[in-house]
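Action item from last meeting closed. Structure (231 res):
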């Protein structure tokens, strides 16, 4: 089914759901956004409920269910139940096909600042987080760069190496904690060299958690998501 026909059907379904003003279906690409759409608690998700999709796309849940059942929105049912689930990549395809602005979803990415002077570590985080699709990533290799980027990038989570070329991670932690605008920023400290006394020091300076190198990258990604959700 082509895009024009998709839009006609989506507009018809939207009209039937009562979303259009005065009973009229909204124009293609200008679907009304429901109140509360794009709330921060959605940004970490890789699989969405029909209610999530309705909130993000500005549709009624019934419209989303009809699009799912008619094959316009790809997903799966939870085994042994009637519940429908939509993977993030399927939702993105649906939004593109129906001219729904992607910023309603992409604008909810978790912002992660990786601070480490090890280029391989920075590249690992960059590759994994960007491929995941839930994250926006920036990197710094010194404490000074970290200070500049925290102010400009406003990260949700900082992945911070304790041993930096210019200053130690506990100094960066205190600088972040000293800024009111970064009060909700979470800090995940990492190091392969730090002794227990140094770990205690960076936690006391404001780091939320510490993970020792070498680490399992999937585990670290899970911790980043949980920390962002706590923010």
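Sequence:
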């Amino acid at each position: 089914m082509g895009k024009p026909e998709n839009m006609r059907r989506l507009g018809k379904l939207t009209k039937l759901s009562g979303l259009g003003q005065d009973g009229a279906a909204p124009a293609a690409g200008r679907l009304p956004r429901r109140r509360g759409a794009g709330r921060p608690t959605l940004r970490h998700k890789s699989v969405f409920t029909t209610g999530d999709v309705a909130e993000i796309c500005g549709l009624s849940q019934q419209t989303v269910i009809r699009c799912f059942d008619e094959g316009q929105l790809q997903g799966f049912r939870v085994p042994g139940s009637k519940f429908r689930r939509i993977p993030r990549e399927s939702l993105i395809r649906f939004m593109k096909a129906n001219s729904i602005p992607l910023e309603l979803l992409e604008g909810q990415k978790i912002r992660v600042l990786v601070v480490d002077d090890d280029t391989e570590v920075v590249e690992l985080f960059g590759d994994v987080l960007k491929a995941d699709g839930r994250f926006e990533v920036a990197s710094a290799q010194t404490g000074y760069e970290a200070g500049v980027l925290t102010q400009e990038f406003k990260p949700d989570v900082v992945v911070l190496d304790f041993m930096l070329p210019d200053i130690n991670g506990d100094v960066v932690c205190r600088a972040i904690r000293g800024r009111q605008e970064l009060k909700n920023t979470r800090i995940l400290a990492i190091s392969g060299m730090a002794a227990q006394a140094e770990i205690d020091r960076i936690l006391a300076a404001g780091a939320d958690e510490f993970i020792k190198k070498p680490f399992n990258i999937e585990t670290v990604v899970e911790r980043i998501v949980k920390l962002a959700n706590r923010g």
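Note appended to the action item: The two ends are 42 Å apart (CA to CA).
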